[in-house]
Amino acid sequence: MDSSQRVRAILSFVQAADAGSFAAGARALGISSAAVSKNIAGLEKALGVRLMNRTTRTLKLTEEGEAFLRQARIALEALDLAADAVVSHRAAPAGRVRISTSVGFGREQLAPALPGLLARYPGLAVEVDFDDRVIDLVHDGYDIALRGGRIADSSLVSRTVCQFNLVLVASPGYLEANGVPKRPEDLSRHRLLTRRFLGGRVSPWNFKAKDGSITTLNTEAAVMTMSSPETLTESAVAGVGVAEVGVHHAWKYLRTGELKALLLKSHHPGSFEMTLQYPHRALVAPRVRVTVEHLLEAFAKMEELHVPLAALRAHEA
Q1: How far apart are alpha carbons 312 and 148 in whole angstroms?
Q2: Could you identify which of 216, 222, 258, 307 might form a hypothetical disulfide with 194, taking C-beta atoms 3.0 to 4.6 angstroms apart as the criterion?
Q3: Does residue 292 sit within a domain?
Q4: Bridge partner residues of 140 (DSSP)
């Protein structure tokens, strides 16, 4: 199979897979169903594997077909982006950029960075979905995702935005009324505010033992459990109890004295990070490339995302 035949066969395969039938794929390409069937059969013969199981009404990709479809989309997009790269030498970056991010990070960190992006590149348009669920970046049609935690995906490029450290906090009023915990065990006598992730898991509170091991505090008796870390932080400010939250959520309240940090020597700050991710591509579209670089520059300047743990000591109860 020569190069031109291979490209035609790959186009037929992708269109048929996306449309769900040879006939629909053929209409999209402007060729006959027989031609689509012949192209895909030739591709399977050249590869030596079956990519699709056909019935009279449906197509179902094999495991090999699913893997090939992912790579085929990347290859076809690379051809489109090669043309975009040529055009980009003559024109400023333009087009729509779709971004997926969590509600909290989107509101507090992403949104403030967007006016500068649009002022810098007037040809851009930005579409942002605020959603705490983990999305399939390629399948769902996003250009960029901002994600917290440790999410490994070999089909994505990951750029670190910041480390996400956790801190225990409470308001001065709460601590005056209930005392300042000096050891992790003291927390059993306090009102605890915990976070529940969308999957149902409650965020554990971990502590460093003298021998270097990590122990986990039982927080089942928490008086409040929320999925929103922003609301959890505000509840701690209101004096409801002791909360474990991200330093970036607590920092402005620590600086004003509305919150105090607790048990800094023994509390384990976690090992999470915020990453900016976009699909692996032979070429990155100019609209995506400039957006990525602008956002990374903006996030690098946000004080709350880069607070050294040592700086928390000045705000410890």
Answers
A1: 22
A2: 222
A3: yes
A4: none
